[in-house]
Amino acid sequence: MGNYTLSPADRAALAFLYGPPAIPLTNIVTTTADAGPGSLRAAMYYVTDHPGSVVRFNIPTSDPGYSNGVFTIRLTGHLPTLATDGLAIDGSTQPGFADKPLIVLDASQILPETFTSDTLLIYSANNAVKNISFQGFNWNGVTLLYADATNNTIAGCWLGLDSTGTNSAPNAGQGILIDAGASGNIIGGTNAQARNVISGNRQYGIWVSGWNSTGNVILGNYIGTDAGGSLAVSNGACGVILTGATRRNFIGGTNAAARNVISGNTGAGIWIAGTSVASNTIQGNFIGLNASGTAAISNTFAGINLLDGAQHNLVANNVISGNFSDGLRLAGAGVMANRVEGNFIGTDALGSIAVPNGFLGVGLYDGAVSNTIGGLAPAARNVISGNGSEGLRIQGVGVAWNWIQGNFIGTDASGNGALPNGWSGLTIFSGATSNTIGGATVAARNIISGNWSYGIAIADPGTSGNLVQGNFIGLATNGSTALPNYSGVLLSSSASSNTLGGTTSAARNVISGNAGSGVEISYAAFGNLIQGNFVGPDKTGANASANGGEGIYIHDGAIGNFIGGAAPGAGNVISGNDYRGILATGLNTSSNLIQGNLIGLQADGTNALGNNWDGVVFFNGAGSNVIGLALDGSGAGNKIAFNGFVGIYVGSDNGDFSQGNTIRGNSIYSNSYLGINLVGGTEDFNGITANDTADADDGANRLQNYPVITNALGNGSSVLVSGRLDSEAGRAFLIDVYGNTSADSSGYGEGKFYLGTTTATTSGSGTATFSITGSGDFSGQYFTATATDQASGDTSEFSLAVLVTNQPAPPVFNLPFSLTATGFIARISLTIGQSYRIQATTNLAGNPAPWMDLTNFVATTTNFNFLDRTSTNFPRRFYRAVSP
């Protein structure tokens, strides 16, 4: 009958249950008996009739219910409901009270079949229940129910814990249930005496549910631990759960005294789930840690789950560490617009020591959209470090438009010491799209450094449209001190159309200081854009903070990716790395465009910052890639200089020739060895592959023969470069001509500036001639050339460099001519040392006229006597002298 609220008249008629009529009811509990004078039940009825009064305790230690320092009231029926406003039950009034409840309510003897009301049920407002231990209830320890249950306080109570504070005495349901519109209630407080210990319950520690259950505050409690906050006394499910569209509740607060320790629970520490569960705040808690914030007391699942429609919730300034699975998990359709700010996830409370979550620090899955992890203010920075696998994972179709900004991922709280996540710092997998990592402002910068594997890994089919901008990846906060990830950024496994960097300095990632490669593109990743980044230099672009491997490593079928670009600011600075600037290797690694970059130079484009090995390498079957201008002339050249070995190296392995690689329009100079080296064929000491007849050999870039420059003639305002190409018959070639202030030590190349392009088509015998003019004074400079097959895209090595000489006077046929029986005779004025060809035709009307070479020679005298013995065979014949 105690579960009903009776009128005063009804209670008077039933007073025999609580004491003889001669003994009046009072608010003082003096016995552990469940009925009769001085019982709790009698006192509760008394205060119900006297609003504003308090149930007090004064039970003597001689009472039979006293044992081991506590007074146990063994309930045989349901407690009266608190249905009148302004009541209080205060266990701290029991003499001897110090720091734990002395009054124990043991409901284990109540018949289980009546469990639906087996709880302290509060329907009313402004009540307080303090310093009571609730054990063995077949439903909840305390239930706050319906809209009238407002502004109640539950403080200093133990719910589900035995009197030692170390073992469970479970309630069958929750420790506390707040439901059906109960609002504005306070669970706990900001001093130790107000702390509830809500542990050992069969289900949830605290469950808040219902559309109008708003404004409830849960602060200063231990939920899932012993009374000392040092050992697990697990609730059977989650520590705290918010469901049923509950809104605007607060778990924790802005100061340390408001901190909940929510640890040791069998499920998640906190579970927030359901459509329109919104605008709740989780702030300042330890979730998965002991009360000192130094060691793990794991929640068995995640630290915090935001699931299935939870939105506009704030998770701020918590330490979420030591949990068995993820620290924080956001998953499901409609999980949106949640903010995660200022948390330590995977560390101790100081952010200096790893206390790993067993799997991820933060996971966004299965439809989570438009959530923000971090923010633009320093106070919004999360430290996501020390976790067992990734620091942060974004995974699944429909996971989109999330913002990851301003965080430290893989470092300690200073951003200057490594606190590695066990795999990558951040991953984007399984079709996640359009997420932003960083941004085009300094405030948005993430420091993603110190992780055991990649700083960022982006992979899988459909994973596209993600933007990585403005981050330091492999460096400390100063942008110069190395804080290595194993490798910087991975794009792999068919990930497509993702962007690293941008065309403004603010969008630039600095991807340097990593132990392996700066950027790795692999396994059919396609259409990704790597633009405007520093890969190998520090943030100034003037000093090396070397990646220990390649600057950019492209391999195993990566196709159609863009490294740099023609737009202003699109080029990357790929310099100062321990190995190569760019390495592309493997069959089907093709159609990648490398344009507009500085490779081996500082960001000023002038001073040296060489990669220790080669500038660019194509190897082991990597083919049909473009360095500089494409065959149609589109794109932009790269500057490739000051590298420790070759400027561009095209090689092969076990017969897997790297072919079809187009190298055009670049500025290649001051590399330690050759500007371009095609490995194979007959090579000299310097690695120059000799031209062969009809270009029949095969190998890297089909060992395309290089042109031969016969003349480079200048007059102070222009230059004429002429030459020939001997190659496969009947093929069209682009002849790219370059200049330099000095020739390579080998004599071949390099090409510092691009003069221009002309075309040449080989005859049936495999020969072609070419010439090109350029404006300017090129006195004292050298010219070299490459040949690119327009059908296959293969580009040759640089030709032998030729010094510009003064342009000779044009050849002149001097009168008189003579025709004798031996043939046509003419005296021609020439320039010594210049190459000439004497040509003849019988038809000037052709378009073009069919000129035929009669002789090809280098002039050794200024006056050359020419004799054509075949002239008598023709009724008429026309002659000219050309150079070359």
Q: What is the terminal separation in angstroms?
A: 119 Å
Taking pLDDT < 50 over at least 5 consecutive residues as the criterion, the unreliable ranges are 1-7, 9-14, 16-20
CATH architecture of the domain at 704-805: Sandwich
**Coarse morphology:** rod-shaped
What proportion strand? 25-35%
Instruction: Tell me roughly what share of residues is in helical segments.
Output: under 10%
Averaged pLDDT: 94
- Overall structural class, as computed from helix and strand content, comes to mainly beta
Features:
2 helices; rod-shaped; 21-stranded parallel β-sheet; Immunoglobulin-like; 884 residues; single chain
Protein model, in words:
Among the domains are: 704-805, Sandwich (Immunoglobulin-like), CATH 2.60.40.10; 809-882, Immunoglobulin-like (Sandwich), CATH 2.60.40. It is built from 2 helices and 77 strands. It is rod-shaped and about 160 Å long. Mean pLDDT is 94; it is low at 1-7, 9-14 and 16-20.
